[in-house]
Amino acid sequence: MSRFYCRKEELRKLNKRYADGKFECIVIYGRRRVGKTALINEFCKDKPTIFFSALNTTEKENLEALSKSIMSFERPDMESAPEFRSYDAALDELTILSKEKRIVFVIDEYPYLAKAKPAISAMLQHIIDHKWTETRMYLILCGSSMSFMESQVLGKESPLYGRRTGQFKIKPLDYKETSVFHPDLSVEDNSLIYGITGGVPHYINKLDVKDSVDEALLSNFFDRSSYLYEEPGNLLKQELREPAVYNAIIKAIAEGASRMNDIKTKVGEENSVVSKYLKTLMELGIVKKETPISEKAGKKTIYLLADNFFRFWYRFVPANMSAIDSGRIAKIYPHAVKQYLPDYMGLIFEKMCRDYLLYYSDNLPVELSEIGQWWGTDPNKKMQIQIDIVGTPVEGRNYIIGSCKYRNEKIGVDELELIREYAAAFGKGSTYHYYIFSKGGFTDGLLQAEERGEVHLITLGDLYK
């Protein structure tokens, strides 16, 4: 059985509201597999709870399931529970129960219920306004369809707008939280686990690393019978009506197409079609749109895979499909997968370094407003350049400029000289504070530059301290 990790702050806030004893309507949402239900179960485990998991089926079958949830709470020893004749009758029963004592009523996968019974949001709004605000009801609405939850539950057009008392958007764990699952593994292994799973607890558990990440990948990922091998396809079929086109777009981005024209050419569809599909993939949290920091969206906008698990799968599975099918993957793994992992981890490491500066680094020389990457033209050299990390200030013109190298060799003074040149091309600051992150450490010359106060040097190990 999987243990529950992290989410302490969310639990604390949920429990504080529970202890207050007043009516609550909490909205919990986030992409599939991110741990929403695990969080709710952990919160509910010592509390009187009616847990109703809505089904992707008819209105009638959902009413049957809701009736069963209520009746098994009231009479847990009953073998078969009577069914409420209507949703109104079921909600009225919940009103009676929550007047008597504090109960938690969870509707998990709320979008399924709203699809089966479109009037349910208006019904809940009415009963909240006229009855439940006077009870001790602790209502939790949970959903994985982020676009639905943001527009149809939290949005101004929703009947439920203004009824919620709190909301939690559950995101994947960051690199440091991910390492809690395997405290005995090296920082390199934990970084790789984060790079493969994207910090999604369900995937961390399914990857099931014991001693070796390589062995875990061969057993639980690069195997047709494994859960993780099937996962992207299953998820796309579950969420989307035309998975083939989405599949082609994700594959194109995973292979390096980042601009709309490149994606369109690889997929073979018109701009308007690709745009529509990209919007859906962004709503699902699979794709993200990025613009150079401190610039407005425009011609420089690029598309990247926001979901590391999808990025890893599409980077390594399609290219090795025949080896996986024929059972030869273990034989070719060292040169078909393992040798490319440092290159794959480059973007992941950049994200880890940005997160480190945002959440874990004490006493930064700049109070950060935003952190991201920047790319543009160096006017002196007339060439395109990219800066891995740019930290913008809340006020003033002090900036952080950073470089991230996920390589085994030591990084030298030439890297500091390079990012000084890049900072001049960026040209928005009066003072720059330089940070270099390196997996393989630093040369003596660069360490001496740090002693002189010219640069801050951070190793992979430092990120985990």
Shape: globular
**Low-pLDDT windows of residues:** none
* Largest sheet data: 5 strands, parallel
Structure annotation, total helices: 22
Oligomer: single chain
Q: What fraction of the residues are assigned to beta strands by DSSP?
A: 15-25%
Lateral strand order in the biggest sheet: 2-3-4-1-5
End-to-end C-alpha gap: 29 Å
Cα gyration radius (Å): 25 Å
Total DSSP E strands: 12
Give the helix proportion (percent range): 40-55%
Molecular structure report:
This protein starts with 7 loop residues before the first helix and ends with a helix. It is α/β, with parallel strands linked by helices. A five-stranded parallel sheet has the order 2-3-4-1-5. The chain has a five-stranded mixed sheet with strand order 8-9-10-11-12, with helices on both faces. It has a two-stranded antiparallel ribbon with strand order 6-7. The longest helix is centred in the C-terminal third of the chain and has 20 residues, at 341-360. Helices cover 48% and strands 17% of the residues.
